Amino acid sequence: MKKYIIIILKIAVAIILVQTLRFKFTAHPDSVYIFSTVGMEPFGRIGVGVMELIAAILILIPRTSWLGAVLTFGIIGGAVFMHLTILGIEINGDGGSLFYLAVVTEFLSGVVLWFEKDNIPKIHQVALK
Description:
Layout: H1 2-19, H2 21-25, H3 29-37, H4 43-60, H5 65-87, H6 97-116, H7 123-128
């Protein structure tokens, strides 16, 4: 049962990451506003989008899901930080939905990472192979 729950969590994280890409890659006004406000428009918007796409792919591959979870945790941690320090909870009247989605994604990627921690290659093991 635990195995299926983890798979569902990985799929949920990947879906969340991928569904936001169209806003970043099409320069949706809300996305442009967010990245302009934090001083990362346009390169940060595109770069974060590419990194989220990579994270979504990695989290779905069993051998690299730990890496996808780490990448997601870092990227979304940055988003949460930007909300708390620069952007605020609510963006353009969204009622905080982007912030809350980021918090949920951060939590889910943390859970996936916790369950995948034993799959993280150890440096000394990699060097010996």
